[in-house]
Amino acid sequence: MQNNILPQNFYSAYQKRLAEVRSHLNRPLTLAEKILYVHLFDSKETKAYQRGSDYAYFAPDRVAMQDATAQMALLQFMNAGKSKTAVPSSVHCDHLVTAKVGASDDLHSANVTNKEVYDFLLSVSQKYGIDFWKPGAGIIHQVVLENYAFPGGMMVGTDSHTPNAGGLSMVAIGVGGADAVDVMVGMPWELKMPKLIGVKLSGRMNGWTSPKDVILKLAGILTVKGGTNAIIEYFGEGVSSLSATGKATICNMGAEVGATTSIFPFDEKTAYYLKATGRADIAEQAAAVAADLQADAEAIAAPEKYYDRVIEINLDELEPYINGPFTPDAAHPISEFVKIVKEKNYPETVEVGLIGSCTNSSYEDLAKAASIARQANENNIETKAKFILSPGSEKVRATAERDGLLAPFEQFGGLIMANACGPCIGQWKRQTDDPQALNSIVSSFNRNFAKRADGNPNTYHFVTSPNLVTALTLAGRLTFNPLTDTIFNKDGKAIKLQEPEGDELPQQGFAQAESGCLQPSADGSSIEVKIAPDSQRLQKLQPFAPWDGNDYKGLALLIKTQGKCTTDHISMAGEWLRFRGHLENISDNLLMGAVNAFNEKTNEVLNPLDGSYGKVSQVAKTLKSKGISSIVVAEDNYGEGSSREHAAMEPRFLGVKAILSKSFARIHETNLKKQGMLALTFANAADYDQVKETDTIDILGLTEFAPGKPLTIKLHHTDGSEDSFAANHTYNQEQIDWFKAGCALNMMK
Ligand code: SF4
Fold first, then answer.
1. Is Lipid biosynthesis one of the keywords UniProt gives this record (predicted)?
2. Does 141 participate in catalysis according to the annotation?
3. Of the residues 428, 463, 495, the one at which a domain ends
4. Whose Cα sits closest to atom 1 in ligand 1?
5. pTM, whole model, 2 decimals?
6. 738 within 8 A of 747, measured Cβ to Cβ
7. Shortest-distance Cα residue to atom 2 of ligand 1
8. Which of the four pLDDT bands, split at 50, 70 and 90, describes residue 2?
């Protein structure tokens, strides 16, 4: 069904390239290093890259996109003038399905509400050779794990939990759409060579503890920033006690500590999973080079020499964890959780338990949680909280149904939602009596930021394993510890729940479910991509105009931002999600969260044409309509957060020529360059203070724009005085060519 999972002769080429890498580096290698160096775009560029500082260019093997981010990625790809994607790619319709009453009705609603988006994604997939997974087929990362991931491979995905595929020994990295386009058009893809965090797992997983607890504990150690610009690589004897899907759970949630990705070595469990999911040929080929799909023995023996940081977790001693509320790194072992709940006065009653998301919705997850639900039914225990289950894929759902794993949940009143993200991304029409009341929910998801699941700031959201979700749902309170406590049944009898049990993979094999994958046409040249001219959700991208060859003079100051200005401040998510495929409509949210340094208000800036104040996007539009370009001035780390390219495309679309900041977040700086913007930094940060609200601004030196050569900023103040100072940039010649062409995509045609 799926074509081209493994590039031709992949493992023989992998071994050959690895031998070359060894001859250059001449030292033992970790697994992550092997895969990264093997995937360098140009083997002639092989050298010892400095981890954490040097940039390198890579050639990933494939791309995956979810429906919310795929829209802008594919709109950009369409402008690249290619007839097919350069590497196998896939689109997954999972984010736009709202969980409300149950799988069947919710899917029907999604197909109606999102029809034009789905039609667009299907037609563009058919045209350009992309696999299209329709709504209900599953969540992107589960589908990738079941169908596309392979040991030793490298992929990018337009979603931050792409690292899920690290459970099958793949370097899988979440990126913005513009980066995905680089890979899809066959351009080198740039990444800072990541640092390496080695996590040694000793002992064996047992009892109530599950793979989720490894990453919940690690999140407490590393915090939400501790993995930034690093790959987390697992090794040690404990690895062999984890199933492939359990490893995927751990890698998935590495995103919550900011890691570039996470990875496990190839082993028998990897091969077992590959065989069970119809990829026995890949399992055999990978097994033949197994030594090259794990860290070298020297690195495992003395990890402190080869990893930048080493952490050890003993699985024998690992307890179940419950993390939250509001942040995934608030890590609590269950033995301490009751005390914490009481001390912090968290709402004790659990109102809803949710199992699902790309993190924890595998066959093993459902099998073990079902064993607890079955005990409840057999012992006449009444469940106290509501229960919702969203399977990770149709393959898992159909198999779980066949094997009687869904029935125990339904028997105690559980609701089975569509195989989609649903509540995990706020697509949950939660029925609640009193949204003002503080309340607790427990889920097997990965993120628990305020409002993420149900939009309600009064919801205290705790993330834990599916086993604990089920047990706490039965008890209906956070203070229940199934390892030590009993639970009363309807007859008043105290019941002690037994440890969860379940197969990691179905003994009879996976059921023959409808895959939900529509394969592309062999020749898509005659396929017309469907975008209605009056659509409010989709809009074809018009190429950005090339540079006119002159210095920028008389730019209006659109906004001088104060303090933090993340991609969320620049292009908000939430209700704006529906416009992710419509640049003009989503541009209405431009910088609406940024604080104006002159009045300390958000979304209220001076219109220099008439002295009035208006929304940032409105003022930008007015200026643009009068043929006046503008500039944004900002403080440090402008554009941190998500990699969404809308934050660079929107100002470009509304006539902003440059962002002048104290510093940039790396991905956003690249995104600005790709969209043909100037990303400049104050040579002297104190010059930020010289910029006045009514200034007009020149950027001089563009006719000699060259790598390493600063540009000049000239401020024209309204009192007739002027100030000039230097602005630095990090453009290389290729990026200057993007600027001159109008954007990187214009260069590809
Ligand atoms: S299930 Fe949640 S975390 Fe996973 S891809 Fe969907 S929204 Fe993202």
1. no
2. no
3. 495
4. 357
5. 0.88
6. yes
7. 424
8. very low
